[in-house]
Each structure stands twice: as C-alpha cells, then as structure tokens.
Design a protein that fits this description.
With about 375 residues, the protein is α/β, with parallel strands linked by helices. It contains 12 helices and 13 strands. The protein is globular.
Length: about 375
C-alpha cells in the first residue's frame, strides 16, 4: 500500500498516486503529494530529514544533488543596502541548476512505476537535468526545447543522450508541443511544471536552509519565478519543518520576474496581463507567460506576506556582471533577475537594512551566452 495520495490543493479531491500529470478531474488544478503516514527511507535520525514520495529509495536515482553552500555576499549586500545578504549556490548541483533536486525525486518515482521512456519540455535547465537523471536511470528522454534556447544548454541536453525536439515560438508553444507528443505516443509526461513529485525534491532546499541557519531562518528569501517549482517546494519544506516544531515563523518569500514576461506580478498587483504580450527576455528560465500553478503561487505569497516585482532587461544584465565582479559568482541571467529584484523590493520598504536575506543562485552562467 502506498504511503501517499495525490491531492488537489484547490478542492481537496484525492486520488491514488501514479505518474500521470493529469490535473484534478473536478476543478482542473495541478495536484500535490499528500503523505498518509510518516515515512522514512532508512534508519537516519536527522532532525531535518524530509519525507519522500519514493517507495524504494534504494533503487532510486541520484547524482549527489543538494547540500549546496550558503555564502555571505558582503560587497554586493553593502551596495544594495543589505548587511545580511546571502546566496545559496544552487548552481553547484550536478547539472548546474537547482532543478536536480526535483528531478532526482521525479525520476525515482518514475522508476517505482516502471517508466522506460518519458517526455519533458524546458527552456534548458530542467531539460538538462531530466536528461542526465534519465540517462543514469536507463530511461529514454524526449526533451522539447525552444529553438532559440542557448546553445550551451542544448549541447548539455544532447550530451546525455536525450532526443531533442526544437520548437519555434515562445516558451508556452514548447509545452503545448510536448503535451501533444506525449499523448500521441502514449508516453509519461515528466513535467517539472505539473508533476506533483518535483516539488517534493525541491523542498529539500528549505531543510538545508534550516540547518545552515541553525533554525534561525532568514527574514526574506527572494526567488526568480517562472513556473515556481523551487518557490513552491521551499514553501512546502518550511511548512513541514514548522509543523514538526523545528522552526518558527516561515520566512517571507518573494517572487521576481522579468518585465517582458510578468504574469505573476501582474496578477499579484492587479495589473492587466495577456500572455500574448510576452516578449523575449535574457532570463529564459522564468519566461513563462501562463504558469500552470499560478493560483498556488499567489496563495503562498499572500500566506507568507511576500511580494512580487518585475525587473527590466538592463537591470538583469547589470546584476549578472555585479555578481561576478563583486562576489566572484557567475550566475545565469535568470538567477541575476532575483538579485535585481532585491532593489525593487527594498524600494517598497519591505526589506530593511538589518534583515537577513537569502537568494538562491539557481543556475550557472556558463549555461547562457553572456552579452559582454
């Protein structure tokens, strides 16, 4: 008997866990994992051990993801008027981005279910991650990508042996093509956007933060957000830690998007937004014009008293340079967008000088062309 079910966060309907990414059959919302009982994969007594949906951890797939360092960003923090600014170096995960946390769990669950071939769509990082973990698991991966995705990311996806399907148009056209293909071919759609298992991997981010800050969590965590897989996972992790009595109040979580693609910011601030208004951005990892879990992200923002801001392209590119020259951190533009958003959030008076602030550096700069 499984220790999990899939639950709709909107209407509460549950169903048995499987590898389907079908949304709730009653209301159409993406599903989440719910644990029916405490479940541990081994005899560890680590206070901060996260529950997992994987049934047989010994046969799961891992490349050593997680345990990324937090570093104090003194120079950049001083320039931004934040004395306690930290970066969590998520680009030190095996394929160069935080996506490995979620992929490890999602592919392990796929192995539980005997999956041998799957479909994913991605602007780059998730595609590389799924390709790598699928290769390690002996699973064939079809990865749908924007035709104009950075060549460095496309090369990385291909090197793992995945079959790459380039699609013309904006990011959402790639998702549509992947969904048509998985239905036509009868393959599992291992979508990092829709899969209920992906956030069960990204929630380990929160557990590590609790350990690294010795339970005294940061006041604020600022995320670059497209589909919100790290944002949602972190919230789930902090909620679990709080429910277990390991931490107190959950940090205020904030979303940053590019001005060119800002559906979450528009919805949060009451501005009009049409997905057709989306245009190209250097922050390709958050260029999602219609996030599948938008309602869930907005609910979390309100619960934790977070905010959502949009940043311009020059600010993103300048912050990428500032991170490199002031702190020795080569972040991809998507990660730099979160740091650019710090300035906007500070202008609103949300972040104060002595607040402890954490920003995940979600991806490595070598994955993108740099406009120097």
């Amino acid at each position: 008997m499984s220790h999990i079910v899939l639950r709709c966060p909107r209407c509460g309907r549950t169903r048995p866990a499987d590898m389907s990414t079908d949304v709730c059959r009653d209301c159409g919302a993406p599903l989440d994992v719910e644990y029916l009982a405490d479940h541990k994969t081994d005899g560890k007594s680590n206070t901060y051990e996260a529950r997992t949906p994987v049934h047989n951890a010994s046969s799961g797939v891992s490349l050593g993801e997680g345990d990324t360092p937090c570093v104090h960003l003194k120079a950049l923090g001083e320039n931004l008027g934040m004395r306690r600014l930290h970066g969590k170096l998520e680009f030190l995960n095996p394929t160069g981005s935080f996506k490995d946390r979620g992929t490890a769990v999602m592919i392990s669950v796929a192995m539980d279910h005997g999956v041998t071939e799957l479909v994913e769509d991605s602007s780059g990082n998730a595609g590389a991650s799924v390709s790598a973990y699928a290769a390690r698991a002996g699973v064939k991966a079809h990865v749908f990508v924007p035709a104009d995705a950075p060549q460095a990311k496309l090369r990385q996806i291909r090197i793992y042996g995945a079959e790459v399907h380039p699609i013309e148009g904006l990011r959402d056209a790639v998702t549509a093509a992947a969904m048509v293909y998985h239905r036509q071919q009868g393959l599992v759609y291992a979508s990092h956007m829709l899969s209920p298992y992906f956030a069960e991997g990204t929630k380990t981010f929160a557990y590590e933060v609790a350990q690294q800050f010795d339970g005294a969590l940061p006041d604020h965590i600022v995320f670059p957000v497209g589909n919100g897989s790290l944002f949602i996972g972190a919230f789930k992790g902090f909620c679990e830690l709080q429910a277990a009595g390991h931490t107190g109040k959950i940090p205020r979580l904030h979303c940053v998007q590019a001005r060119n693609v800002m559906p979450l910011v528009a919805a949060f601030t009451g501005q009009a937004w049409d997905p057709e208004a989306a245009s190209r951005t250097v922050a390709g990892g958050i260029a999602i014009a219609a996030p599948s879990r938008q309602e869930q992200i907005l609910d979390i923002l309100r619960l934790v008293e977070g905010t959502a801001v949009a940043v311009e392209e020059p600010s993103i590119m300048q912050m990428q340079l500032d991170l490199a020259k002031q702190e020795g951190i080569f972040a991809e533009p998507t990660s730099a967008a979160a740091f650019a958003g710090l300035e906007e959030i500070a202008k609103q008076g949300v972040i104060r000088e002595n607040d402890t602030v954490l920003v995940p550096v979600t991806g490595f700069g070598l994955k993108d062309e740099v406009p120097l």
